């Protein structure tokens, strides 16, 4: 899924009944060719410039292999992506194919916005996908999304910042959250002004992991909140302590960081020793920082792991699309073609097709190999089951970010914030 890199959402996308409740599952048709006999489809995704360039290169290869299909790419910054998508869906002008993340597949599927991919027929080949990846894209047993690749929360480490500060690297197998805070504060103290031990405070995704480490869960299998008010209060208190002890930037600096690109982030500019984010951010962060970054396990994983594997993103087809067959062919190309995979590498997660993983292995940089190795460790971990958030849960990410910000600015106490979080989050998933 850091605040600026969360694969849920730092800024809430408007997905209420006003936007999506008006939809009807039209069901895509396979025709709708243009006057010249070609079929033009729209493909929307979020990401930085590097992702846009790589995706366009794959689109060019797809069009060369499928000369009767044209693809209009619609890249967007993450910050405005879901607002734009929700608006286009409500206006019945949705892209034929788009990417989703976090709880959005369930949110869109439950409101009738996604095509049941079993209707795509032979155009979509998912036979070589990992079974767990297929399950991740299902809502109520129906395949609505296709995993772009595996992903997991991780701590990105910049050894160069540690070395410059004279601070030893932690033991990723045994370190605690207190170790993380103390090490981060030490780096800040021993580094030039503007360099911090941690690039961010905690996020909604880390609340999920924090709860799991305490034997709880963000959501239960039946779509209820699965964590206690005390755990939420402890989470907010720890987040506040990171800022107070100067382990991370001040609240005002974090608000500024929330809207910057990967390249402009503290980790991307080499001004952070650590950053909690998603593993598939490694490639972009490594290129931006110009340094050999490493992926460490989360603090506090002993004795109860909080980590889990999830799909980085999903490819989905709009229920409104009249060109679903062409869109399905593009998805199939994106997840099964070796040449496409060698361009995309692990940018949208480690591929969920074993043949594709083998094909890209020689092409991976040290950072890419580090990501694959880290996911192997996660894959061997005996972690608790995970459940996709229920309808309305996309609002909970915004609630977490907003209240956490208020706690950091000391507008509310951690205990008051936790009480507010429980009330607002319960109401959100019942709406």
From TrEMBL:
The record's Gene3D superfamilies line, in alphabetical order, gives:
Periplasmic binding protein-like II
Keyword list (alphabetical) reads: Signal
The highest taxon in the source lineage is Bacteria
UniProt signal peptide: 1-35
Q: What is this protein called?
A: ABC transporter substrate-binding protein
């Amino acid at each position: 899924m850091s605040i600026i890199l969360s694969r849920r959402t730092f800024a809430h996308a408007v997905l209420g009944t006003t936007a999506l409740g008006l939809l009807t599952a039209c069901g895509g048709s396979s025709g709708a060719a243009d006057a010249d006999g070609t079929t033009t489809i729209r493909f929307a995704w979020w990401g930085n410039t590097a992702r846009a360039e790589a995706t366009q290169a794959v689109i060019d290869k797809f069009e060369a292999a499928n000369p009767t299909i044209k693809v209009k790419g619609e890249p967007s910054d993450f910050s405005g992506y879901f607002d734009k998508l929700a608006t286009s869906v409500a206006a019945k002008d949705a892209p034929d194919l788009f990417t989703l993340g976090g709880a959005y597949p369930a949110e869109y599927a439950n409101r009738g916005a996604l095509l049941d991919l079993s209707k795509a027929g032979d155009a979509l080949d998912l036979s070589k996908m990992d079974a767990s990846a297929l399950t991740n894209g299902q809502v109520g047993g129906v395949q609505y999304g296709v995993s772009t690749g595996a992903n997991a929360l991780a701590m990105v480490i910049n050894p160069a910042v540690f070395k410059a500060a004279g601070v030893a690297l932690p033991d990723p197998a045994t370190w605690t959250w207190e170790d993380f805070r103390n090490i981060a504060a030490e780096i800040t103290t021993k580094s030039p002004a503007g360099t911090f031990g941690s690039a961010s405070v905690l996020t909604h995704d880390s609340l999920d992991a924090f709860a799991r480490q305490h034997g709880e869960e963000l959501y239960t299998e039946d779509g209820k909140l699965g964590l206690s008010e005390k755990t939420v209060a402890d989470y907010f208190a720890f987040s506040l302590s990171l800022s107070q002890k100067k382990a991370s930037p001040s609240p005002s600096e974090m608000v500024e960081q929330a809207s910057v690109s990967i390249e402009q982030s503290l980790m991307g500019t080499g001004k952070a020793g650590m950053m909690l984010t998603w593993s598939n951010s490694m490639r972009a962060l490594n290129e931006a920082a110009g340094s050999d970054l490493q992926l460490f396990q989360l603090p506090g994983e002993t004795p109860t792991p909080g980590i889990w594997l999830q799909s980085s993103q999903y490819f989905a087809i709009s229920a409104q699309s009249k060109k679903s067959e062409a869109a399905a062919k593009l998805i199939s190309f994106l997840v099964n073609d070796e040449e496409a995979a060698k361009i995309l590498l692990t940018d949208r997660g480690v591929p969920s097709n074993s043949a594709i993983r083998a094909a890209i292995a020689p092409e991976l940089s040290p950072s890419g190999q580090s990501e694959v190795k880290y996911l192997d460790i996660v894959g061997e971990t005996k972690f608790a089951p995970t459940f996709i958030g229920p309808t309305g849960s996309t609002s909970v990410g915004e609630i977490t970010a907003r209240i956490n910000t208020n706690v950091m600015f000391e507008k509310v106490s951690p205990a008051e914030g936790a009480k507010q979080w429980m009330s607002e989050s319960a109401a959100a998933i019942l709406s």
